[in-house]
Amino acid sequence: MSTSNYPSATPPPSNPPRRDSKNLIIGLLAVGILGTWGYFLWDKNKNDQEMTQLQTQYVAVDSAKNELQKSFDASLSRLDSLTGYNNELEGKLTDRNSEITKLKGQINGILRKQKLTAAEKRKAEELIAELNEKIGSLEQEVARLTQENQTLTTEKAAVTVERDTYKAQKDTLETVKAGLENKVNIASTLNAYGIAITPINERSGGKEKVTTKAKKVDKLVISFDVDNRIAETGSTEIYVSIIGPDGKPVSVEALGSGTFTTREEGEKAYTARIPVEIEAGKKKHVEFAWKQNEDFKRGNYKIAIYHNGFKIGEGVRELRKGGLFG
Q1: Same domain for 206 and 108
Q2: Mean pLDDT of 206-224
Q3: N or C: which end of the chain has fewer CB within 10 A?
Q4: What is the extent of the structural domain holding 104?
Q5: Cα separation, 190 vs 101, whole angstroms
Q6: How many independent structural domains does the chain possess?
Q7: Shortest CA distance to 72 belongs to which of 125, 146, 10?
């Protein structure tokens, strides 16, 4: 076998199959990467769409919740406007208020949630509709009761005016009646006349003798007649006041003396109080004896007779000094 430095005329073998395989792999990788990016882009777009849909749904639900809250607040406002009337109408609507309070609690329980399901939204709408129906019924009831109350108030005002008118008339009549009764009372005061003051000396054996000597007088017999044309039959009292020679009232409590009120002279002391039975239109004779627990003194004894607070008669009797030595 010979060797030569000249190049051979036959070309050397080449590797085209290896280069084609590399290009294919690169192409496949490029397609894979593009596919992956495409998937990522599609998935991101899909997620963005879902997020947008969720946000739209949330806004819609939140808006619906706000509308429900507004509707509920409007119902509560109507209810508050009725509360004052309800209080004034003496609790006549208590049962209905209890039902409304229960509904308010249920609605509040739903609306306190951050997110509402469709079922909860429907439930809230139903409860608010029921609440509005009950409030409407309550408004009608309050209107009816208010009208009745206004009618009663008007009637009460009319009755009050009528009552006050009758009361004023009654007061006037009572004043007139009291005035007439007072006049009749005054007019029925007895008249006293035929007044006599008789000093009596009581002797042994029961004999009595009239005397003017002070030291012999044992008692003063006072007598008089009384009458009045309009005085009614019945019992009355006459007061007799005796004034001694010293100008002082003769008053002995142990013998029945005391004080009484006169219409013109104020409080006065009386010596004796005498019960008298009067017969209408007839004269009555009155007589009593005054015996005191001390000697009678020389001088004038004055008597004043009172009935019904008025002085109706008076008289004077002098007791003198007796004998040579008095």
Answers
A1: no
A2: 93
A3: N
A4: 49-152
A5: 81
A6: 2
A7: 125
